[in-house]
Write a structure and sequence with these properties.
single chain, two-stranded antiparallel sheet, mainly alpha, about 210 residues
Length: about 210
């Protein structure tokens, strides 16, 4: 079994969560051009394609449209952080998780009719998928593989039930915003793909 990288893991969790705590909320009901320059330049604008600052593929995860949106995502991030503490992702796992962050948001280019995207939810789906995939192909002293299978089935079912191919935005009263199901799909796909790549790499080692 590979050794875990708990410091790197929690640094990644902190890099995702702490800036989100420090940045102001954005008004998703107002045109993004009317936002303060800081937040306007950190948000992802899928309708602009690749013609936007390169940092937005990371920074858009730090912005949120309501307090409920922010705190629900941070609670999920802490839960995934705790799960990672138990599952002990290795250094290569943490690197793949870091790659999944921008890769998830690159998938939003397929939503060219969407002017703005912000939030952690896509990356959260990627983290969950990658952690569960890693556990599926690795023997853990406490956590059985069957739990990973159940978790992955639940994640895939959730994403498919959200119907990301037909719904650009869906009202979420709990978060007081409209959510973009496509980013959940992109995050899950990125996590599953990178997790499978990691499993194949690990299988090729003597």
């Amino acid at each position: 079994m590979q050794r875990g990288a708990p410091v790197a893991w929690w640094l990644l969790i902190g890099l995702l969560g702490l800036p989100a705590l420090c940045l102001p909320l954005v008004d998703l009901h107002a045109p993004w051009a009317t936002w303060p320059p800081l937040t306007a330049n950190l948000a992802l604008h899928p309708d602009q394609g690749l013609h936007q600052p390169p940092w937005v593929w990371w920074s858009c995860a730090w912005l949120h449209g309501s307090a409920a949106h922010l705190w629900r995502n941070l609670a999920a991030l802490l839960m995934l952080g705790a799960l990672g503490q138990v599952l002990r992702p290795s250094w290569p796992d943490v690197v793949r998780l870091a790659i999944a962050w921008p890769l998830t948001h690159l998938g939003m280019l397929a939503q060219s009719n969407l002017p703005t995207y912000v939030g952690l939810s896509g990356v959260l789906h990627a983290l969950a998928a990658l952690l569960l995939m890693g556990q599926l192909f690795r023997q853990h002293p406490v956590v059985p593989r069957a739990l990973s299978v159940v978790g992955l089935l639940g994640l895939v079912t959730k994403v498919l039930l959200e119907n990301p191919w037909q719904m650009t935005l869906v009202a979420d009263p709990r978060s007081a915003i409209n959510v973009a199901p496509w980013v959940h799909f992109c995050g899950a796909v990125a996590g599953l793909a990178l997790g499978a790549l990691g499993a194949r790499t690990q299988a090729g080692k003597p």
